[in-house]
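User: Teach me something about this protein's shape.
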Amino acid sequence: MKELAGKTAVVIGGGHGIGRGIALALAREAMNVAILDLESDAAQHVADEIEVLGVRSMARPCDVTSEASLASCASAVGKELGPVHVLSNNAGVSAPQGPICEKSDLDWQWVFSVNLFGIVHSVQAFLPGMRAHGEGGQIVNTSSTAGLIAVPDLEVGVYTASKYACNGYSEILRAELAPEGIGVSVLCPGLIATGLAQTSARNRPTLYGGPLDEPKQMPPEMAAQAMQAEEVGPIVVRGIKANRLTILTHPEIVVPMTRARFEAIRADGEAEERERAAQQ
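Assistant: First, the predicted structure itself:
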């Protein structure tokens, strides 16, 4: 999708971090932008930032675990800003660190309710409108480098599993929507200064155990290396215009690691082929 000016974008989870960075970058491309976020004050703040850039914006509270909330938002955006051409699904949560075998069912249910089913339900809410205008568009689902490479030492197993699921969903969705001119990209950020752990902790619903204690801050040495969230926005814009399947913030790190992962898979496959041949 090369022409963005004058069209409408929806950024879910746009009140903070990467979502805010994406929203600002799309506004600088002269798109009108709807900011949907569980934290309505944060959404309004970003909408105010966007209007300074000379385009229209709106803010609305949105809970991606509620199909009714998403349906209401889709209706409101259509009435206020018109047909949607770009949908950025950026809402996400992270569970507390720890061994995956020690995580509770509530941890699993909470993380997947947002990181996978939140994206599924957001697409279900906005895709009919994107199909109806017949002009094509782009869906960008925010995953993570953790959706491409499992790193056990980080002890974010539930998060990693949810992001692998997001990647698989996005690849199938891309194939299904390509004939309709709707592209699908999966954004896999690396180390970004977002405050995700903090927003996740304070917004965990009562259904899944309620708010968590304030998590530890990122170690200073890691924080110094982290990309700023606003830097992600222009990367996403380039990915949208090129209809990339995978949008990477740190290709210099991720590409060698994914190459090593698939080399290991190939080695296992070749070993099995040799063993079968030896048995014949």
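Now, about its shape. The radius of gyration is 19 Å. The first helix runs from residue 17 to 28. If you'd like, I can walk through any region in more detail.
User: That's plenty for now, thanks!
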